[in-house]
């Protein structure tokens, strides 16, 4: 019974608290729900002022003046464009030219006499012969030593080309002298008093080499003949070089003093 009474009291207290909170909340929300007060201000439109007659005349006169001024400015600008003369172009300086007077004398062509014509032909012939002689290449005079070497070729010499002939005339004696310079007398030939000469033939190439070295004529002494072949194998390096392969024939002397 006591528990029932206590529960009843507690429920009553709770209901009272809830009611109290409910009333407090309504008091707070009431002023928020009220509508705002309307203002009593009224807006009044002002009527525009009517322009007077004097003000209209002034405006029209100002407009006319501005138009007149713009017209005057346009006319002045047009006058300046068309009435102002263009700037003068400076004159171009003329180049001075020298005049050269050429005086020509008229010569009367008279027929030449026969003697004059013959003299002119003789002069022309002499000048042409001199020109021909000067244009010919200068050849070296053949000395006695060179001539003796050339005699070794016989008629075969005339079958060579002009270039080969010129090389032989100019260098054959030098080849013989170079060979004699390198010549060493064999000791056996000195003891046995061997003397004489032999003829040697070979081909000299443009690069300085030699080929087909052989003995054409013997000295009747084998020591002298073999010495000549050996000497040419050493001396050929100093020989002059031809422009084409050339046959060389020289003789080698052996003489005791």
Task: Explain the layout of strands and helices.
Layout: H1 2-33, H2 53-83, H3 114-135, H4 144-151, H5 162-182, H6 187-191, E1 196-204, E2 210-217, H7 222-235, E3 246-254
Antiparallel strand pairs: 1-2, 1-3
Account of the protein in words:
With 257 residues, the chain is mainly alpha-helical. It has a domain at 144-254: TolA/TonB C-terminal domain (2-Layer Sandwich), CATH 3.30.2420. The chain has seven helices and three strands. It has helices at 2-33, 53-83, 114-135, 144-151, 162-182, 187-191, 222-235; strands at 196-204, 210-217, 246-254. A three-stranded antiparallel β-sheet has the order 2-1-3. Strand 1 (196-204) and strand 2 form a beta hairpin. The radius of gyration is 71 Å and the shape is elongated. The N and C termini lie far apart (187 Å).
What keyword list fits this structure?
3-stranded antiparallel sheet; mainly alpha; 7 helices; single chain; 257 residues
């Amino acid at each position: 019974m006591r528990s029932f009474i206590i529960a009843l009291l507690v429920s009553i207290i709770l209901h009272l608290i809830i009611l109290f909170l409910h009333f407090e909340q309504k008091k707070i929300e009431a002023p928020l729900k009220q509508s705002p007060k309307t203002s009593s201000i009224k807006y009044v439109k002002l009527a525009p002022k009517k322009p007077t007659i004097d003000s209209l005349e002034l405006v029209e006169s100002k407009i006319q003046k501005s138009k007149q001024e713009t017209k005057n400015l346009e006319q002045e600008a047009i006058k300046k464009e068309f009435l102002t003369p263009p700037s003068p172009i400076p004159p171009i300086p003329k180049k001075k030219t020298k005049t050269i007077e050429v005086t020509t004398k008229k010569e009367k062509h008279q027929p030449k006499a026969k003697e004059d014509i013959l003299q002119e032909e003789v002069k022309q012939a002499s000048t042409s012969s001199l020109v021909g002689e000067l244009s010919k290449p200068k050849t070296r005079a053949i000395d006695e030593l060179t001539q003796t070497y050339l005699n070794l070729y016989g008629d075969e010499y005339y079958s060579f080309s002009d270039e080969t002939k010129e090389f032989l005339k100019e260098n054959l004696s030098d080849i013989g002298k170079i060979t004699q310079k390198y010549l060493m007398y064999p000791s056996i030939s000195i003891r046995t008093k061997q003397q004489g000469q032999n003829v040697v033939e070979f081909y000299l190439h443009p690069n300085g080499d030699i080929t087909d070295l052989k003995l054409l004529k013997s000295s009747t002494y084998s020591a002298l003949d073999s010495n000549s072949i050996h000497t040419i194998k050493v001396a050929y390096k100093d020989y002059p070089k031809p422009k084409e392969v050339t046959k060389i024939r020289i003789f080698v002397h052996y003489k005791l003093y």
